[in-house]
Amino acid sequence: MVISASIVRGCALSFGLLCAAQVSAETFTAASPDQRNRIEVTLTDKGLTYAVSRNGKAVIAPSSLGLTLQNRPPFGTAIGAGGFTLVDQKTTSGADQFTLPVGKVKSVNARYNQTEFTYRAATGDVKTLKLIVRAYDDGVALRYVIPKQDGVAAFDLQDEMTAFNFAADYDCWGLNQGRFENSFEGEHDAIKASQMRVFHLFQAPVVCDTGEAAFAIAESNLKAYPGAYYTALSDASYGVKVVLTPRKDNDPGARFNTRAARIDATNGFETPWRVIMLGDRPGNLIESNLINALGEPSVVKDTSWIKPGLSAWDWWNGNDFPLPAPHNANGQKSGMNTATYKAYTDFAAELGLEYILIDEGWSAGSTVEPNPAADVTTPKPEMDMAEIIRYAKSKGVGVWIWLQWQQLDNQMDEALATYERWGIKGIKVDFLNRNDQEIMDYYQRLLTKTAQHKLMVDLHGAFPPAGLTRTYPHYMTQEGVLGAENNKWSRRITAHHNIMLAYTRGLLGPMDYTQGGFRHATPAEFPSKQSFINPYVMTTRGAALAMYVVYESPFGMVSDSPPAYRKADGSWEDGVDFIKGVPASWDETRFVAGEIGQSVVIARRSGKDWYIGAMTDDQAREVTVPLGFLGDGAFSAKLWQDGVTISTLNVSDARVDKSGSVRLKLAANGGAVVKISPAGKKK
């Protein structure tokens, strides 16, 4: 642990108590184990600040810290007589070591150095505040702790004073939602720090490139607390500050908080971690496990029932396709009926997919609105759920079902017990569209109770990942991403957007982008082919495959209708053989090459096999992929690259080793994948 302290206009130090009334500045520096990342905390007569550097170069300039309590003095603004003083400081070193049943890596060993500061206010009933800072090799983090205090059972939190003051006018990328209640979807647009405004509300992550380092601002261990947005600083400096989402019981017309949270302080309270992921380049952030490392340890002891996999899915394609025999007996048409989901089951079994997902419309009164009359324990008459589940089980396929969150909440205990009894494997809960303190309570209840009933979870309209997948490993994936569904009604899902996701939203955790679209059109053709039913995508077949490697989602979609994966002669379409074998969870992840917004190449390992996914924007590229991540010995590689048309592939084989490389040719809006296995291994 590297700790330095500088005290101006000396002060007596006795038994850890600093007479801060005489102190002009006290600075403590914590360094990461590799010494590259440093966080400085300074106490002055103007307040509490911190600063961050990487490789000796400033990343975050001195920035404010503190909490604003309603009807109480704020913590962090006034030091000295009548303010608050530093009374204790402890330094420790440690490591977050854990394994994950699903995710982008199998095991994590995140070493850190930590300093814990205790401050004491001169007045008020909430007198003690702790600040904890950590420095990891891939970033830094800080949080506030209010210990248990006599006579303080609860208090109202108005906001945080946590700011991120940029040391220069950085190139940044952010998703400005502009309002608190939303579906957490959108484009992560390029923006200079000087262009950020106080009326912006950026969701996590805010990614920036200093020219010498890259960083991403996010949060982790979010529980019983409002989620954060980030808005520009109100003075002339560059940077952003935390804005907490107000409670729903606030004035609905209020632009900013009158009350963000009601804090139960009976046993003390911890805020989420404010996280700054750090790397030399934006792509290096892709390898970081910092968000998970800062999450609470798993509360699920037995994880044997948590199984990653890909799923056939009905909603994206519109459930409109000719049913094959024997499911088309008596002229049966596709739709929300038993025969259709038996057909999906056959398709899933033939491809080796682990699941089918039955989306909106299967239960009595099912709608996308709250609808108190809905009954999520009773299937519609056309849906023989017992028969669907029995048939799927006989084929080795599990069943997931869709739910609107308030409808589920009305019957949660009864419904979850019912689904467990039926043999449902997981639930997709939709239209949450909030990150206030009250919805956090719902997340906690839902994730706790689904674990008790051994049900995996996929949340849609969900806020960006904030460490919950470590605590609740059955929380397999989530939305909070502008994904493939938008091809049905917009032109927003461009190749550039898809690449940006890897460098922004994808940094935080799994995302249910719902890949698998196998109907392709060029951007010029797309307007004439766009359709809500059986939609097209504006990217190539190679890009469609690459998404299964580039995007992390232990519960992933194969979104198109079954006929879309067949050629006219009944044989499989190009690339289906790759989907048949691609894992949904990984042991290791490496960023290999690429530039933010232009291209990305990621390698992931499952067992002894490596998979490479490459994607480009609207520019055709050739990329050389060094194979230094391979182990010793010879390997066999199979390459799927863009073909002569947007819907075809060139497939080839090669012998490779760790001293070599593979060269991939990517068409405009295209991509490629590679599978590398030890030579001689049976495929």
UniProtKB/TrEMBL annotation:
Keyword terms of this UniProt record: Glycosidase, Hydrolase, Signal
GO MF, one annotated term: carbohydrate binding
Domain of life: Bacteria
Glycosyl-hydrolase 97 catalytic domain residues: 315-481
Domain Glycosyl-hydrolase 97 C-terminal oligomerisation: start-end pairs: 585-676
Domain Glycosyl-hydrolase 97 N-terminal, chain residue ranges per copy: 31-297
Signal sequence annotation: 1-20
Name of protein: Alpha-glucosidase
